[in-house]
């Protein structure tokens, strides 16, 4: 975004609070600022949804809904600085053209507190009573709830944020180009698997039970979300569709020490376990599978 370019709405929606639907958006600036459109903000505090002439403009640094003299004793300098309207480009495909106006979502509860405090102090004018009542209701609805989180849910931005976070993880770990093969899942790793399962181990043979492949995948699944799937996506395959490269050859060079350290810790858990079942429980407790909150009790006597 250039210095003079307006931020753009990248996610839009309507946040329903009580009987009110408040138009909101997330912008593409560095902070992904959450905003209520001017119409949405005015609807939130019980004013006419359509801004009247000059409604969005500020006088003495304040918008029309905070301009009354009786409210000024309840307005802090910090609040006054945050009331400047935000101008942004509407969401593509929304049907709106030109510029859009809005206010930071975090301004809403602050404005509600102004009307609430003025009401408690007996300073609300009869013409402001409707707004004060709506603000009181709004404060109850927003108690202990992060307004940004509500907007993320209303606009679908929480899913966009999750996808972006996942992509950053994949960018950290996975490389499109395979680096030279380096022994990572070493003989000791497999020897410990055989020992915990009480299988005979032949160091001269490369044949292993197929289930070990699933267990190796499980180790990757505990490293970071989506990494194994991405490794399988980028790895080269033979004519039978089987990987022609080791998955860890696509672990980025800078992330490879992290994988090695992780496997070293996993092998330590193996050595501390009397059998495979015990190890699986210890592994789940030490390195929970991504997305899992399973807490398995440890069988401390080591019996199957």
**Uncertain regions: pLDDT < 50 for 5+ in a row?**
52-60, 292-304
Query: What is the radius of gyration?
Result: 29 Å
Secondary structure: helix percent: 40-55%
The beta-strand count equals 5
Largest sheet: 5 strands, antiparallel
**How many H/I helical runs?**
11
Calculate the mean pLDDT score and round it: 80
Task: Briefly note the structural class of the backbone.
Answer: alpha+beta
Distance between the termini: 60 Å
How many domains would you count in the coordinates? 2
Topology order in helix (H) and strand (E) letters: EEEHHEEHHHHHHHHH
Q: What strand order characterises the main sheet?
A: 1-2-3-5-4
What does this structure look like?
The protein has two domains: 9-155, no CATH class; 166-286, no CATH class. α3 packs across α4 and α7 (187-196) runs parallel beside α10 (256-271). It has eleven helices and five strands. A five-stranded antiparallel beta sheet has the order 1-2-3-5-4. By secondary structure, it is an alpha+beta fold. It is elongated, with a radius of gyration of 29 Å. 24% of the residues are buried.
Structure summary:
By secondary structure, the protein is of the alpha+beta class. The protein has helices at 38-44, 77-81, 107-120, 129-142, 147-155, 157-173, 187-196, 211-221, 227-234, 256-271, 276-286, and strands at residues 9-17, 20-27, 34-37, 86-88, 100-104.
């Amino acid at each position: 975004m250039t210095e003079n370019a307006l931020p753009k709405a990248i996610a839009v929606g309507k946040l329903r609070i009580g009987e009110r639907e408040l138009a909101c958006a997330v912008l593409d600036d560095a902070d992904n600022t959450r905003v209520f459109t001017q119409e949405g903000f005015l609807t939130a505090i019980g004013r006419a949804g359509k801004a009247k002439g000059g409604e969005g403009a500020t006088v003495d640094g304040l918008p029309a809904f905070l301009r009354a003299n009786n409210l000024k004793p309840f307005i802090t300098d910090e609040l006054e600085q945050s009331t400047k309207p935000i101008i942004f480009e509407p969401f593509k495909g929304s049907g709106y053209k030109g510029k859009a106006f809005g206010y930071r979502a975090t301004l809403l509860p602050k404005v509600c507190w102004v009307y609430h405090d003025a009401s408690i102090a007996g300073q609300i004018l009869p013409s402001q009573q409707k707004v004060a009542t709506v603000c009181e209701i709004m404060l109850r609805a927003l108690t202990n709830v992060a307004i940004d989180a509500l907007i993320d849910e209303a606009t679908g931005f929480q899913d966009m944020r999750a996808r972006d976070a996942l992509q950053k993880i994949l960018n950290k770990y996975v490389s499109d180009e395979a680096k030279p093969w380096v022994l990572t899942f070493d003989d000791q790793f497999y020897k410990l698997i055989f020992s915990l399962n009480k299988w005979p181990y032949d160091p001269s043979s490369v044949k292993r039970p197929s289930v070990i492949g699933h267990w190796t995948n499980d180790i990757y699944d505990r490293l970071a979300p989506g990494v194994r799937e991405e490794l399988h996506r980028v790895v080269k395959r033979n004519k039978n569709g089987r990987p022609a490269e080791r998955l860890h050859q696509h672990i980025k060079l800078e992330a490879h020490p992290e994988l090695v350290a992780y496997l070293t810790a996993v092998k330590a858990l193996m050595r501390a376990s009397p059998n495979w079942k015990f190890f699986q429980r210890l592994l789940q407790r030490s390195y929970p599978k991504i997305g899992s909150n399973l807490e398995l009790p440890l069988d401390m006597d080591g019996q199957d």
